[in-house]
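Researcher: Let's walk through a ligand-bound prediction step by step. First, I give you the protein sequence. Second, the SMILES string for adenosine-5'-triphosphate. Third, you return the three-dimensional complex as C-alpha cells. Ready?
Model: Ready.
Researcher: Here are steps one and two:
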Amino acid sequence: MIAIEDVSKRYADGTVAVDRLSLQIPNHSITVLVGPSGCGKTTTLRMINRMIEPSSGTIRVDGQDVQRQPVNALRRSMGYVIQNAGLFQHRTILDNIATVPRLLGWSKQRARARAAELMERVGLDKDMARRYPYQLSGGQQQRVGVARALAADPPILLMDEPFSAVDPVVRRGLQEELLRIQGELGKAIVFVTHDMDEAITIGDRIAVLRKGGRLAQFAAPDELLSSPADEFVEEFLGGDRGIRGLSFLSTRDLELDRSRVFPIDADRQRIARATSARPADAQPVLVTGIDGKPLGWTDPAAWNGDAGTLTPYGQSFEVGRDSLRVALDRAVLSPTGHAVAVDGSGRVLGIAGQETIAAAIRAARQRHAATSPQGTEYPQDPPPVKATR
Ligand SMILES: Nc1ncnc2c1ncn2[C@@H]1O[C@H](COP(=O)(O)OP(=O)(O)OP(=O)(O)O)[C@@H](O)[C@H]1O
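Model: Step three, the predicted complex:
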C-alpha cells in the first residue's frame, strides 16, 4: 500500500538523514522502522505524510504519488501518534479525540459520539471524557493519542515512538492493546521505535536502518532473528537472539507428562502407586483443584491432602497460544524445573520439564532445517499469538 521508492532526504545543513531508501509497506500489517538514534526513522515516517518533503525519490500510497496530493487531505487520511501523545491541553479528552472528525466537517454531536466509541475501543473509562490531558496518566494519554489518530478511520496509522515515555508494564499493555485493535481494524501501521523488543513484539515486518538512513535489512521478526543480514544487524539484535527466536516456536506439539498430575481429591494410595514405580519418584507431583486448574506442587510421599501445604506453581503457559520461549521461562522459574501446561480455560493439560522443552526446540529446528530453502535456524510454524512473545 505504501511504496517508498529510492527516497533520500538531505537537510539544509547537508545532513543526509535518509539515503536512497526503498520499502514496500503492505496493507493490514504493522511495519516497524527500527535502528539507532539518528538513523532517519522519524524523517522517513514524516515524509510519508509530508511533514517533511523528500529531496528525491517518490512515495506512493495505493499507487498515488503523495507529492501530487493536497497536503491537508493527505494528512487526514493518515492517523499520526507521537511520544507523549501531543494532546491539546486546553481541550477535554472527548474533544481531543473528536478533532479530526470536526476538521472533516462532522457535526459536534456525531464527532463526540465517535470519540466516545473510540474511548471504549482503546480501553479508556467513560468518566475520563470530560477531563483534561493533565488529569490523565502518561499511559492513559497515549491511549487518547491512539484514539485521536483512529477517529476518522484512516487506512494508515503513523506512530513515532508512541510508547517510549511510559514504564515497561504500561508499555506492554499498550503494545497488547495495539495488537488487539489491529486485529479488529487491520490498518497499515508504520511504527517507529529504537527498541528491538518492541519491534519483535508488534512487527509483522521490521526494517532495520543504519546511520545515514540506509536500509540494513527488511524482514519478518523470526527471519531477522535467525538470519541477520550482517554484523550491524546482529549486534543491534543483541546477544540473546537465540532465546528471542524461541518466541516463534509453538508449544502445540510439546510432549506433556500427565502421569504426575492429580486432582486434590485423588486417593493418596493411588498417587503413591503411580509415582513410586518411577526412577524419578523424588520429583513432586502437581495437584489440581476439582475444576482441573493448578493448585501447586507436592512431594508425593509427604502429601496429606491439605492444599495449604502445596508449593506455589508460579505461572502456567497455554498450549498452542504461548511460545516455547514462554514455556522455557516458566520451567526455569518453576521450583520443580517443570512448567505447567494449561488449555484456554486454565485447566491443566500436563507438565513439561526443561529437558522435554529443550528436546522440542531441537526437533523444531531440525524440522525447519529439513524444509527451509535457506537452512535458517527457526521454523516457519504458524507463530503463536504475538502478545505472548
Ligand atoms: N531539521 C533538521 N536539520 C538538519 N538535520 C536534521 C534535521 N532533522 C533531523 N536531522 C538529522 O537527521 C538525522 C536523522 O534524524 P531523525 O530524527 O530522522 O532520526 P531518528 O532515527 O528518528 O532518531 P531518534 O531515534 O534519535 O529519534 C539525524 O542525524 C538528525 O540530527
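Researcher: And what stands out?
Model: The longest strand covers residues 16-25. The radius of gyration is 25 Å.
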